[in-house]
Amino acid sequence: MAGVRQFDEDSAFEQALEVFRAKGYRATSMLDLAKSTGVQRGSLYNAYGDKEEIFSRVFERYADRFVADARVALNKAGLREALVEFFVFAIRSITQGSPARGCLSTKIAVEIASESPRQQELVKKMLDELEDVLVGVLQSPEARAQLVIPPRQAARIIVTMTRGIAVMERVYSDPKRLRQTASALIDTMVRPG
């Protein structure tokens, strides 16, 4: 039947995500996507038009899931515990796999965001949503009493640290070092209990 996709889009997008994570945007070809998804190139072109459209849809799903998982990680009783759990989640997300898969949003921000307004907006939207989730946690009266800086400023520093951690993971491949760095940041932002 014309117009009906003959493949499982969820499965295809998961496979495409792994290719973009492994190769980045530029080095990923439509042939790579066809091979990984098991969907003919022609079918991918007919369904989505081009690689950028596939990437955009895949990235939106990735970003939504990442922000939702961050929200769950931050759902702890105490501020320090919430931030520790958040960084555990962030570090685990970039160190999974063999070799470690890294951070797709940071990879895209560095690789091509300045060349593609659409992709820059996708990354910006994800980071803004992550910042808003953090602000939601940091602006409670209990959290404000423990923070040494205003909630929005703290959230921006934390989001920036997640990007720095992603870069340092690529250089050192040492999750323990990343956790120690995150812990040091928490110590500088949160007053001792």
Helices and strands in order:
Layout: H1 9-23, H2 30-37, H3 41-48, H4 51-73, H5 79-95, H6 104-111, H7 117-138, H8 141-146, H9 151-172, H10 175-189
Helix pairs in contact: 1-2, 1-4, 4-5, 4-7, 5-9, 5-10, 6-7, 7-9, 9-10
Keywords for this entry:
193 residues; mainly alpha; Tetracycline Repressor, domain 2
Beta-strand portion reads: under 5%
Helical/strand content category: mainly alpha
Q: Please work out how many helical segments DSSP would assign.
A: 10
| Helical content band | over 70%
Low-pLDDT stretches = none
CATH architecture of the domain at 60-189: Orthogonal Bundle
**Separation, N- and C-terminal Cα atoms:** 64 Å
The CATH class of the domain at 60-189 is Mainly Alpha
Overall pLDDT metric: 92
The best one-word shape is elongated
For CATH, the homologous superfamily of the domain at 60-189 is named as Tetracycline Repressor, domain 2
Number of strands: 0
Structural Rg:
19 Å
Major sheet summary line: none
Q: CATH topology of the domain at 60-189, which one?
A: Tetracycline Repressor, domain 2
Descriptive notes:
With 193 residues, the chain is mainly alpha-helical. The chain has a domain at 60-189: Tetracycline Repressor, domain 2 (Orthogonal Bundle), CATH 1.10.357.10. Helices cover 75% and strands 0% of the residues. The chain contains ten helices and no strands.
In short:
The protein has helices spanning 9-23, 30-37, 41-48, 51-73, 79-95, 104-111, 117-138, 141-146, 151-172, 175-189.
